[in-house]
Design a protein that fits this description.
This protein has 5 helices and no strands. By secondary structure, it is an all-alpha fold. It has one domain.
């Protein structure tokens, strides 16, 4: 294996580590909102999880833009792509929550499963599409 390949692999692992840290922060926000809405207000788990997901997405975007991917893309294209990807992640999250809680799973166990699925989907999508290679006009702030 060449040194360039090793450096590239190390960069991806480092980025994955930063993504997990940022995801942990966003996940803590989502779980706090989920628990507050379910236990405090008696809301059903799926909508409570979805509300937490949406409210944590802004923090998730900003931290991923600056810290994880160290992006130099203008916010317009990056935020639009992130929102589209997050919307798909929201649907995945809600589907897993709905199916698992409907089958009798405890809502926090269902949320852990949903979080795991969305984590990998989001990392791959954000790496390749949101913050990845694209036209120079999208990668460089004007």
């Amino acid at each position: 294996m060449t040194r360039a390949a090793l450096r590239g692999g190390a960069r991806h692992l480092s980025r994955l580590g930063r993504y997990i840290v940022v995801g942990g922060i966003a996940t803590a926000i989502q779980y706090a909102i989920l628990i507050l809405l379910v236990r405090g207000l008696g809301m059903a788990p799926t909508p409570a999880s979805s509300i937490g997901f949406v409210l944590s997405a802004g923090v998730n975007y900003l931290l991923n833009y600056r810290f994880t991917f160290r992006s130099n893309r203008p916010h317009g294209p990056a935020a639009a792509k992130f929102a589209a990807l997050a919307g798909t992640g929201l649907l995945i999250n809600a589907a897993i929550m709905h199916v698992m809680t409907g089958a009798g799973a405890q809502y926090l166990i269902a949320q852990v499963c949903a979080t795991g699925a969305v984590l990998f989907f989001g990392f791959i999508g954000n790496t390749i599409w949101t913050f990845g290679a694209g036209p120079v006009g999208e990668r460089t702030k004007s």
